Amino acid sequence: MEIKVLGTGCAGCRALHETVKQAVAELGLDATVVKEEDIMKIMSYNVMQLPALVVDGQVAAKGRKLSPAEVKELLAK
Amino acid sequence: MIQQFADWLVCGVFGMSAETHLGSAVNFFFYDSIKIIILLFLISIAMGVVNAYFPIDRLRHYLTTRNLYGFQYLFASLFGAITPFCSCSSIPLFIGFVKGGIPLGVTFVFLITSPLVNEVAVAMFLGSFGLRATVIYVTSGILLGTLGGFVLGRFRLERYLSPWVRQLQAQSDTKSEVWAKTHTPFAERIPVIVRDAWGVVRGVAVYVLIGIGIGAAMHGYVPEGFFERYMATENWFAVPLAVICAVPMYANAAGIVPVIQVFVAKGIPLGTAIAFMMGVVGLSLPEATMLKKVMTWRLVGIFFGAVTLFIVLSGYLFNIIL
Fold first, then answer.
1. Within an 8 Å CB–CB cutoff, is residue B221 touching chain A?
2. Domains in chain B: how many in total?
């Protein structure tokens, strides 16, 4: 599984990155978590609100600071 | 009810007299903190509900597919007001609009109104200045965004965008932007909306408390009419001075409003205070550095200069009519 956190470095984006890393560890997933800060690459996902979460190339969530439970639910799918 | 609670807490529990400076300051602190936090929570929920039905992608879809006969500026401004703003989203928004073929002027409308009218500013205004001042703030913020974007749109500023953004604009394709309607029942959305609203409150609570703390301290000690000598209506430079001081300040609305409230209580005209507030929340240096990624410095300067000018003009207008 390939997980990307899209964000330009604001507090919300960093918080989501941490939440996702923690969720991956707790679920014991075999996944890579990457933080994408390059605005050009972020825009290729066509999101207008950050932070956003991309799982295997699909935008799973955008514009919200997800709670750990929400992240787990999204990753468990 | 909140006032009674604050009175009870200060006089009954802490044993302070409301007559003393300290007693009235502590009373003011508790009363305002509780009131504003409740307001902030309720307004965030209300905005969350509206936003669940009018997400940003839907706005873009509307703006790209319909001819709104000039009303697109006002429309974008109204949307900007209800959309929660985060400075980190300003660039993706900008690019998203440009890619969708939305004119630069309309994009600017959104960039002006979205930070200017946000849930935190509205709650703080409502709690500190009451309904009338809040309605004036919100209405003028929406009109200022509409007018500002419209005027900026006339100047053909596209040439000052960064080259890669101009390239995107040239390839813009309105057809590709589809807005997929999702059918989530209202009942399922409520917990998420409430949780997000609580997140907003939690995120700014500390600034609210600090701001009200400073406000409360000043409230009890600064004499009546203290600021009037420096910033009264008669001083024509008071408004531009207030706005120019405000622009580089990156204090959030939560921290700054309680302090401004004391300024107003001690003699500063409300119009000057509203203009100051608009300068603080509407324009900030972090936003300028963000915008630099999609614009040349020249365009950032034009944008900031124009918005500053509009805020100053509306400050004068408030002071005349209020």
1. no
2. 1
**A13 assigned to active site:** yes
User: DSSP character for B161?
Assistant: B
Evaluate the CA torsion angle A41, A44, A48, A54 in order and state its sign.
Answer: negative
B228 Cβ contact list (under 8 Å, min separation 6): B266, B267, B268
- Quick one: which of B115, B103, B120 has its CA closest to B145? B115
A52 is catalytic: no
Q: Which of A13, A23, A50, A75 is catalytic?
A: A13
Amino acid letter, B171? Q
- B86 in a structural domain: yes
Contacts of B241 (CB under 8 A, 6+ apart): B231
Q: Which of A10, A11, A25, A69 is catalytic?
A: A10
Domains and CATH numbers, chain A: 2-76 (3.40.30.10)
B47 within a domain of the structure (yes/no): no
A12–B56 CB contact, under 8 Å:
no
Please write the tens of the pLDDT for every residue from B273-309.
Answer: 888 888 888 888 878 888 888 899 999 999 999 999 9
Residue B66 in any domain: the answer is: yes
Distance CA B33, CA B43 (A): 15
B89: contact with A, CB 8 A cutoff: yes
Q: What is the ipTM of this complex?
A: 0.80
Selected residues 3-62 of chain A with any CB under 8 Å from a CB in chain B: 7-10, 12-13, 39-40, 42-43, 46-51
- Whole-number Cα distances in Å, A43 to A36, B94, B180: 11, 10, 19
Q: What is the pTM of this model?
A: 0.83
Q: Do B56 and A65 touch (CB under 8 A)?
A: no
Please tell me which residue of chain B has the smallest CA distance to A52: B89
Instruction: Read off the pLDDT of residues A16-63 as tens digits, 9 standing for 90 and up.
Output: 888 888 888 888 888 888 888 888 788 888 888 888 888 888 888 887
| pLDDT score at B181 | 58
pLDDT at B176 over 50: no
Q: Which residue of A has its CA nearest to B293?
A: A39
Note whether A50 contacts B92, CB cutoff 8 Å.
yes
CA pair distance B61, A45, nearest whole angstrom: 17
Domain that holds residue B98: 54-169+217-321
In chain B, the percentage of residues whose pLDDT exceeds 70 is 86
